[in-house]
Amino acid sequence: MKREAAVDGEVTRKPRLLSMVIPCYNEEEVIHETMRRLGDFCAQLTDLDIELIFVDDGSRDRTRSILKEYANRDARIRVIGFARNFGHQIAVTAGIDAAHGDAIVLIDADLQDPPEVVHQMIEKWREGYDVVYGTRTERPGESRFKLSTARAFYRLLNRLSNVPIPLDTGDFRLMSRNVADALRSMPERDRFVRGMVSWVGFRQIALPYKRAERFAGTSKYPLRKMIRFATDGILSFSTKPLQLAVGLGMAAASLALAGIVYALFLRIFTSIWVEGWTALMIAVLFLGGVQLICVGILGEYIGRIYNEVKNRPLYVVDEYLGFEVDMPHMSR
Ligand code: UDP
Ligand code: MG
């Protein structure tokens, strides 16, 4: 805890700083309302200083200029403007990199995560927890497809991953400075933030909350991004797909061996060995399919290794606004 020597020699406690990280991508329709709700939230926070870090993830609408207007008027608002769209997880990472708070809250711009819940998170943090993650009890207003795929994804991920990753939990969470520092020391390029936070450890606790509907606008996670996100989650937290590939290969090889014995048997002991075209086709196609799947899985991992060794910065920042210190324009 930061302490400052007061003039009269007594030690006074400087209020602790809470950083809120809000990734925004084409959110011009919701920003004003988000600001209003966050403003109300801040007004109720009497014993904490606050900084609001908006990360504009290369929006193509007026999001950036709206954010800048707010930042010019309010010293608590800071803006990180990316040079292009780098994706939600990278935007969150940039926010964590830039945050100075004793505690850091990740929250979506579309008000699906109610800011009021953060009060309860802060309480838990004061009780000594390092991570307070919001678990969704209800998700109204989402398509049945999104609900069922999300449900299946969290369960599959948990089964495959070596680190237990909480079910039905998004990035809406509070983390302590220690956890943020640990995250900042993890250089991986394929970032699956909620999994990384689980991996870090410390004292973590779930906080059930009712996820609201998006205030306005549409989801910025189309199916393509959802699939990429899910693949990142599974491949960066599990090598089980590789074991699965080995298993599939072994099963196929055993079947093939049985086929070979059978074919030889027919050839040596019977006269019907010209027949069996169907069996031949099945064997060829089956083996071909299994091999392609396994090569594909290998390829996914190799692609990720390639991505890591290139060692490019995680993101490129076009501009910072409202920060008191000079910030680097590229990550690490
Ligand atoms: N977002 C982002 N970059 C992207 C996609 C989304 O920064 O490429 C932000 C978006 O503005 C929002 C949050 O990430 O604040 C969650 O996105 P969204 O609400 O569209 O996802 P959903 O809630 O539908 O899963
Ligand atoms: Mg949303």
From TrEMBL:
The keyword Transmembrane helix applies. The chain crosses the membrane at residues 244-265, 277-302. Coiled coil: none annotated. Residues 19-182 form the Glycosyltransferase 2-like domain. The keyword Cell membrane applies. It is found in: Cell membrane. InterPro entries: Glyco_trans_2-like (IPR001173), Glycosyltransferase_2 (IPR050256), Nucleotide-diphossugar_trans (IPR029044). It is a multi-pass membrane protein. SUPFAM superfamilies: Nucleotide-diphospho-sugar transferases. Its main location: membrane. Keywords: Cell membrane, Glycosyltransferase, Membrane, Transferase, Transmembrane, Transmembrane helix. GO terms for cellular component: plasma membrane. GO terms for molecular function: glycosyltransferase activity. It holds the Pfam family Glycos_transf_2. Belongs to the glycosyltransferase 2 family. GtrB subfamily. This is Dolichol-phosphate mannosyltransferase. The lineage of its organism: Bacteria, Pseudomonadati, Pseudomonadota, Betaproteobacteria, Burkholderiales.
